[in-house]
Amino acid sequence: MSRSHFWRNFARVAVLCVVASFVLAPMLATALGGFKSNAEIRMNAFALPQDWDVSFYGAILADPAFWRYLGNSLLISTGTVALTLLVGAAAAYVFAQIRFFGSRMLFSYMLLGLMFPFATAILPLFIKVRDIGLLDTYWAVILPQTAFGLSLAILLFRTFFEQLPKELFEAARIDGCGYVRFFFRITLPLSTPILATVGVFVFVQSWNNFLLPLVVLNSREAFTWPLGMMQFRGEYVTEWNRTLAFVTLTILPAIVFFLAAQKYIVAGLTGGAVKG
């Protein structure tokens, strides 16, 4: 039994190592590419640099445009996360705690957003954003991202809220606590895992969004980092070393945010998986 247990653990670790290598290899190649010349990148993208040239990273860090792109992305992503958490949690709380005519139908309607990819609505979004005068503003990115993120957020929040003890709500009602006060004073403080889980999903999706900012943002002052990356692509040549250095520096905030909330993610995703 001990030998079979050993081989099961060995196979499990081997599979995890293979999967991790597929995830980490592109990230490692991207980080190393920022130290290489374009010729080295073309010859072998995964090899160590012959000469560790830090000038590409230094030039990007010294460029004010890099920090402007980073700040724009951070502002848009933070606004999207805050709005999605507030609206999604409030809507899911209503579906989980309040029974009213048509609640199931309305909840199913909200989940329809999971069936349609973001790109299918890009033209109507552009027309609507232009008509209401939000073109080339941060809200032109924040509001559509929030709208498309609400379906998943409501689904996860509602599943989690339904597993909270009913006795808490009954005791709060006896003490004269209304729905709104119960939501802010009791439900949200108990929902840290699911708040972190949804926040990470929304933040990473917003941070890496390219299509929507490309369509609704025109001025370079409002560009996010995916749009700023295009400055290294010319008509005849692409500065791959600068591009890879730029990508490495800009994905660090998303990685740090994910690692900081990692311990809550599994708890948030499994919080509503088992009843009782």
UniProtKB/TrEMBL annotation:
Record-annotated ABC transmembrane type-1 domain positions: 70-261
Entry membrane topology: Multi-pass membrane protein
Keywords (A to Z) from UniProt: Cell membrane, Membrane, Transmembrane, Transmembrane helix, Transport
Membrane in keyword set: yes
Main location: membrane
Species of provenance: Marinovum algicola
Ranges that cross the membrane: 74-95, 107-127, 139-161, 182-204, 243-261
GO BP terms: transmembrane transport
Domain of life of the source: Bacteria
One Gene Ontology cellular component: plasma membrane
Protein name, as recorded: Raffinose/stachyose/melibiose transport system permease protein
Compartment(s): Cell membrane
Similarity section: Belongs to the binding-protein-dependent transport system permease family.
InterPro entries: MetI-like, MetI-like_sf
One Pfam assignment: BPD_transp_1
SUPFAM superfamilies documented for this protein: MetI-like
